[in-house]
Amino acid sequence: MWMCLLYNETDSSVDQQLCQDLGLILSILSLVYLLVCFPLGLCYNVLLVVVNLSNKVSMTMPDVYFVNMAIAGLVLNMVAPVELLSSSFSRWFIWDYNNEVYITLLILFNISSLVIMYSTTLLSLDYYIERALPRTYMSSVYNTKHVCGFIWGGAVLTSFSSLLFYVCNHVSTKMIECSKMQNKEAADAIMMFIGYVVPAVAVLYAFVLILRIRKESTPLDQDSARLDPSIHRLLLASVCVQFVLWTPYYMTLLVHTIAGSPGSFSNRHHYPTYYFLRCVAKLLAFSSSFAMPLMYRQMNKNFSNKLQRLLRRLHCSDQSCPHERSAVQQVVT
């Protein structure tokens, strides 16, 4: 399995056994994720998107960002089984993909990670704006939808620059243009800076501003236009969980950027441990696709009401529901 192929009969049996044990642990973790976390993440992400889009009128600014993160989570849900059932993660692998599939999966993974991190970051900044200036509508649902569109566009463009490095790292060195760009460390450095350092600094800045506002109690704190107080707890929990789950993955990118390719390590006996930690870090990153919708489901007070309205609407089918007719009559009068 994967890195254990580096060993031969001249290597220590202790190192060979360690490699096999790490491979077994990683295979079990991958299987647990596929059996438990993957179906939960898929169901809750779909539920979050469907429930909110079916209640567009009652959507708030945080709802738009969480829908955006749920869509990115669905992309991760699509990538996870392909990777976790390959020989890179599992001893009981089903398939082994080529370089083209590897690059495609990597780009989708990078796009999802950028969308998740920047949605979390801009949610923090917009929450501060909403707390400080509740009636300016700078962080309205309409504006937030356009911001989310820019997030996806920016993620694709950023991933395209990394794509050039990854593609050139897998093609023939006879191409002069690509031979000068065969540097995977540069691609990891780009992702590390844009995907982690910038969002981390922005989130830290947003939280400093939010804490400063919370200390300064004003008559506006009772303004009905302000967000539900539970959103603050949801924001804090989502930011902490996202950074906890994604930090190990970006730390492996940092190590790869500084130390270079694992194959160039002077002591190759450390390579299985490094590879194991890198795979576990990626598993944690995949876990964000089910942790976020679960938190949203438990901590958002309005989600249950939206879900009940959707179920009643489906139950009524084509006929207009009584509660909807009464609501329409109230609006008309």
What does this structure look like?
With 333 residues, the chain is mainly alpha-helical. Helix content is 75%, strand content 0%. The chain has helices spanning 13-53, 61-84, 99-132, 141-168, 176-179, 184-215, 230-259, 271-299, 301-316, 322-332. It is globular and about 65 Å long. It is found in: Cell membrane.
The percent range for strand residues is under 5%
What is the H-and-E element order?
Answer: HHHHHHHHHH
Roughly how much helix do the residues carry, as a percent range?
over 70%
Principal-axis shape equals: globular
Helix and strand composition category: mainly alpha
> How large, in whole angstroms, is the Cα Rg?
23 Å
Total strands: 0
What is the tally of helical segments? 10
Distance between the termini: 71 Å
For the biggest sheet, the summary is: none
Short description:
The protein is mainly alpha-helical and 333 residues long. The protein has helices at residues 13-53, 61-84, 99-132, 141-168, 176-179, 184-215, 230-259, 271-299, 301-316, 322-332.
List the helices and strands and how they pair.
Elements: H1 13-53, H2 61-84, H3 99-132, H4 141-168, H5 176-179, H6 184-215, H7 230-259, H8 271-299, H9 301-316, H10 322-332
Helix pairs in contact: 1-2, 1-8, 2-3, 2-4, 2-8, 3-4, 3-6, 3-7, 4-6, 6-7, 7-8
GO molecular function: G protein-coupled receptor activity
Keywords: Cell membrane, G-protein coupled receptor, Membrane, Receptor, Transducer, Transmembrane, Transmembrane helix
Domain G-protein coupled receptors family 1 profile: 44-296
